Amino acid sequence: MLFVGDDWAEDHHDVEVQDEQGRTLKAARVPEGIEGMARLHELIARFLPEDSDPGQVLVCIETDRGPWVRALVAAGYQVYGVNPKQAARHRELLSLSGAKDDKADARTLADMLRTRRHQLRQVAADSEEAEAVKVAARAHQTMIWERTRHMLRLRTALREYFPAALEAFKPLGLSGADTLELLTKAADPGAAARLTIGQITAALKRARRRDVPAKAAAIQAALRAEQLGQADIVAGAYAVSVRTTVAVLRTLNEQIKILEGEVDVCFGRHPDAEIYLSQPGMGVITGARVLAEFGDAENRYADAKSRKNYAGTAPITRQSGKTKTVHARFVHNDRLVDALHMQAHAAMLHDAAARAYYDELRAREIGHNAALRQLGNRLVGILHGCLKTQSPYSQTAGWAHRYQHLAA
User: Fold this and answer.
1) What residues contact 252, with CB distance under 8 A and at least 6 apart?
2) Does 124 map to a domain?
3) Residue 24 β-bridge partners
4) Residue 127 in domain
5) What's the CA angle centered on 62, arms 60 and 66, to 5 degrees?
6) Which residues form the Transposase IS110-like N-terminal domain (predicted)?
7) Which domain holds residue 184?
8) Rounded to the nearest 5 degrees, what angle is found at the Cα of 197, between the Cα atoms of 191 and 202?
9) In contact, 226 and 152? CB cutoff 8 Å
């Protein structure tokens, strides 16, 4: 077998090929792209007997996605994507001096693969449908996170020079279309105080708000109320910065809607979409995010425990002597954990068996977030069973062993 360490950069890859005894057969630098992949194949072919299986070549690289990784998998190599922290810890075993360079990193990756392959996770190729869902779902979630960041910046700026706006638009939300429209027209206190009922009403109607007359009157009164403020020249500078943030937020709102439609389309194409949608607390967006992060490669998760461990919902135990404690996993996939938390919260509200499990946990004086995490852990196990048997969610099958009276 050949063990290849691949330390990648934006425009090149440092690779080292080792044999089963750890001897370096060849170290080289190849460019990114088709030319580099061809040179890598030629390099490996020098040390691989004719008519041998490409599966005898094992490649270790600090990523599990991208065209380069996809090409390695397509070539038939066994590809292992490792966390950079794993590589850094193994580097410390090989060199105590702290020295680091790209060639040494390639050697580290090859050695780690040769000696610790049983502890590493092989890259499993997802279907094209799942890859499309991942791209759309991640882009959509990233845009939402960006909107939240800009909304917080907007809130901070308004609090520093225009606190009345925060009070006026509190019922609407700072990212609402009507709030952004009114702030575009009147970002400074003077201009906001001159807004008429007609202007405010028109913005609320375009945003399809209810009880428009009462809301418009309350907003106008709040904008005209006395408040602590800044000098006019300072307020003017703040107003310009707020208008730019508002413009970004309006653009983000538009693009989030577009991406939401793309998520719906991509998720709808996947053959497992109906199974995901059958799960309690899981809609199109949440289902797409969960599918995107779990992937759909066959046999990626040996059992439900493996899927739970990857999800980060399974607890970890720390024991030393007579002391034993159970903790939440600190290292996890943030996107997947966020989606599973949303699912658990929705399931707790709308599924009787999920609610019973949540109430049972709370009765044991387990905190709200910890109870949701344990509920999410249980739901991941149910999802694994449904995907394995290609069957939709069933309360009877999922919870009968706990709450037979609810699942009947």
Assistant:
1) 143, 146, 147, 150
2) no
3) 18
4) no
5) 100
6) 4-163
7) 132-265
8) 100
9) no
The residue type found at 168 is A
Cβ neighbours of residue 343 closer than 8 Å, sequence gap 6 or more: 279, 280, 281, 282, 286, 290, 376, 379
Mean pLDDT of 105-125: 88
Give domain status of residue 144, yes or no. Answer: yes
DSSP code per residue over 163-183 = HHHHHHSTTT-TTSHHHHHHH
Q: For residue 84, what is the enclosing H or E element?
A: helix 84-94
Residue 286 counted as domain residue: yes
Dihedral of CA atoms 117, 119, 125, 130 in degrees, nearest 10, equals -170
Total structural domains within the chain: 3
- Burial label for 357, CB within 10 Å (0-12, 13-18, 19+), is buried
For 142-201, how does the pLDDT look when each residue is reduced to its tens digit (9 = 90+)?
999 999 999 999 999 999 999 999 999 999 999 999 999 999 999 999 999 999 999 999
Q: Which of 84, 119, 154 is the last residue of a domain?
A: 119
Report which DSSP code applies to 116: H
Q: Judge if pTM exceeds 0.85.
A: no
Instruction: For residue 348, give the nearest of 340, 357, 337, 336 by alpha carbon.
Output: 357
SS3 content of the chain, % helix, strand, coil (to 5): 60, 10, 25
